[in-house]
Give the backbone structure.
Amino acid sequence: MRRLLVLLMLALLIGAALVWVLQQGSGYILLSFSDFSIEMSAWTGLLIYLTATGLLLWLLLTWRWIAGAGGFRLWWKNRRSTRKINQTAEGLLLFAEDDWQQAEKLLSQSADKSAMPVVNLLFAARAAADNNQIDQARQLLKRLKITYPKSSFVADKALAELLLLEEKPLEALQILRGMHSKKPSDRGLLRLLADAYYMAGDWGPLQKLLRDLKHYKVVTGEALANLELDVYCSLLDEYRADTELPVSEQKALLEDIWYYTPKKLHRHPQLIAVYANSLSRVGAPEKQQVLLIKALNHQWHPQLVVQFGELRSTTPEKQLIQGEKWLQKHRDDPDLLLALGLICQRLSFWGKARDYLSAAVALQPSTQTYIALAEVLEKVGDSSASAETYRRGLMAAQQQEQQQED
């Protein structure tokens, strides 16, 4: 309120001063040029001067706005930006359409002018790699790291993926291990690390990585279950007995691997078969037999039946008794008949071996069954039948090779 009163007083004083000046005289201004002259009052001249000055200032400000960020320059900048975005979008569309060569060309050429240069260079590198231009892809990633240092992590991850495409997992691991220590929860990095370990057959570190893959949901569902099975099967399959260690210690090391295998996998036939083979390598046929019997009593599986027949038990009589118990429920199982024939062959029960093997051949002819039957026939003195069986076994082997080639 006080400020308003002060402003009113000032306005009245200025107005009074102007009235006083006008009363003293208006004065005049004379402009003469050759035969042309203009005469006007001083106040009219002042008014024209102020109007012209205001108009000039308005024109200057207007031009500044047009040429500056708020006008023509902004329009031109937006136009160029839209064009760059369109080039990036066109390049990505070509990438999606598998036109690798054109996608790489357009994305790499427009990268420096793009609003998303990192995206341009990443997809340009991937397009070059998919087009088998590996060296070009490497150069693009190198350019990305140099031009945009903050994108080094993304560029290194892309380079590791490129090395995996080249089937160079060891080189990829050199990059990925250092990156993993910096960002242990990066899902894309964990996926690449798992792929690299898998391709390199480095099962120990991959087994330790399984927990992170599950925790961060990098691999889920059936894919995770299959990966776990592959890892533990490979760990068991790669175990080789160290002859410098006592047999008991060798068995203990193998049992440790089995112990740390998830319990849910202990009933999987494929894993049991691999573990059984490993027990055979460390000289533990008794434990192998117990394992196979327990597994087959719980779940019937051809691969385990075959292993049971090939097992050289220290108690083959018990092995035969168990097999014949199963035969009551699986009379037409050719794998079980072959297994019983092989067990009887090792026990020198030639008559029973011939009967079992003949029944197996009738149900499912195979090279292994023919050869075993031929050996048994030779033992019982039927040389002609043995020769004919060998011939059939040879024919079966040839047919099998032809089927594999086809």
Summary: Residues 79-166 form one domain. Residues 397 and 403 are 10 Å apart (CA to CA).
